[in-house]
Amino acid sequence: MCTSAGAGPLFPVTAVRADAPPRLRVPLEPVDQVTITTLVDNNVDLFAPSVGPATRPSIGDYVPGPGPLFEDNWNYAGLIAEHGFSALVTVTVGDARHDVLFDTGISPDAMVTNMRRLGIDPGGVEAIVLSHGHFDHVTGLDGFVRAVGRAGLPVIIHPEFWSRRRVVFPGRDPVELPTTSRRALEGAGFTIIEERQPSFLLAGRVLITGEVDRTSGFEPGFPPQQALRDGRWEPDPLVLDDQALIVNVRDKGLVVLTGCGHAGIVNITRYARQLTGVDTVHAVMGGFHLGGPLFEPLIPRVVAELAQLSPSVIVPGHCTGWAAQRALADQFPAAFIQSTVGTRFQL
Q: CATH code for 26-64+77-346?
């Protein structure tokens, strides 16, 4: 929620020129602090300890609700975990605070329910960034609309977000994925902003990567995916709409937040450094998409490359997978923090 106008207007979104060279460097103004609150993730742990910049909610922090089976008809309703991702990004510059919603989870109501149980007002959100078009990052917009009404908020996406897609695994029938309706989003009052190039929020202090340069040479995207183009299903492994959010925290460095990381977490982090000219990576957070037999062989290479980037905080969640989380915890014993729903990271 914007509490002061001192940091400048949140909008309009400022896009880098479409004819800009691919190796363009864009200035990212530093912020005093960024707080990232995990609203949806695959894991919830009531007993996970607070550590470093991570503050975990205790049962007493939840907003009480009705409990018809309990004395005095009240109970602490727990947080909801699901296969999806959503985070609230709160940027502080001087006395001003702004809230940006990054992804919204896989079910209509989990994100908004978790916000309410954490005492977060959905009406304080000023902008929504969707990392890509997969439904486990988009569906919570439904509950958000019912919670706040016609919000009139901008939703920042890549043009490939609307692609009709399916996944094809060997020996199985193709499975089509839900496709978000532009008409439904606009009918709900959202302003759709499509950018293939990097774009800024908050007067140049929050950077949305747009399409990520694929430079690592070993991160394959999402090979099982196909897209419907001109009436035919075609291979669509790169997930070109995959984009990340970047903030430069004063005297600390870059905070890189991903949804699934289909572009490759190494590619994304390298691209963040290349775009901004800031070499220090303070935190890398979100989905790294290293779960399952197709991606687990990449884990040693990804871990080694991230070690070269040397983040101070690393929070792999959502689709990262247990094997990759274990490897990252071993490689980064001081930096690794387990991602759990409700955790607030003050960076």
A: 3.60.15.10
